[in-house]
Amino acid sequence: MKTLILVPTQKELALLESTLARFGQHDSVSIEICGVGPAVSAMTSHNLISDHRPQRVILVGLAGAFPQSKLQLGAVVCGFKDRFADLGYESESQFFTLEEMGLCAYEKGDKRIGTQFFCEVMPGLKSVEMITVSSMSASHARAAKMWHSFAAATESMEGASVAMVCAEFELPFLQIRTVSNFVGPRDPATWQIAKAMSNLDSYLCEYLSS
């Protein structure tokens, strides 16, 4: 099965040392950078899928975990669902999605694309709900509001975008994230990027070898 692996940044890609060494030149695996944020990752993944014609897409990378999720730093998880969490409107206490407004993001004929997407799950990983945002939640207030609205385990900036493109191409989509930090006020001194990416690298390399 031809697999396209997408990674948001060059820094994350460089830390997938074992995966790159084993599969960087593999005939059935292509590893590419999709960029950061919903707009760029959607555009780039569309172009890469058109170029590579994969049979499935796997998005991998770092994510922040909501403290209420009980996930630990360095945990590797897969998403069974992802959604755009800031596409809609926001009240004083809650966020309302397009679906709750009676809208969809894209409509053509019988095809309707909304704000949430179901993903395939990975063997041996905890499956969680994820959200995609255009700007990270960097305050206790916003983190609490996002948890209240969605109760998702992790927050990142690309998942729903790539899932949306895969839905358009009717391709299986899988997402693996590793927890580098907790959602809330930014404190880089507490982040565990190297540990998180090492754990992700080990899992991904083992999964692709199976």
| Strand residue percentage | 25-35%
Given the C-alpha coordinates, what overall shape results? globular
The number of domains is 1
CATH fold title: Rossmann fold
| Number of helical segments with 4 or more residues | 6
Biggest sheet details: 5 strands, mixed, barrel
SSE string? EHHEHEEEEEEEEHEHEH
Low-confidence stretches: none
Q: Average pLDDT value? A: 95
In the CATH scheme, the class would be Alpha Beta
User: Any idea what the CATH architecture is?
Assistant: 3-Layer(aba) Sandwich
Main sheet: which strands, in order across?
3-11-10-4-12
Kindly report the name of the CATH homologous superfamily: Nucleoside phosphorylase domain
Number-wise, the strands total: 12
Query: What percent of the residues sit in helical stretches (DSSP H or I)?
Result: 25-40%
Structural class: alpha/beta
For the record, give the distance between the C-alpha atoms at the N and C termini, rounded to a whole number.
12 Å
Cα radius of gyration in angstroms: 16 Å
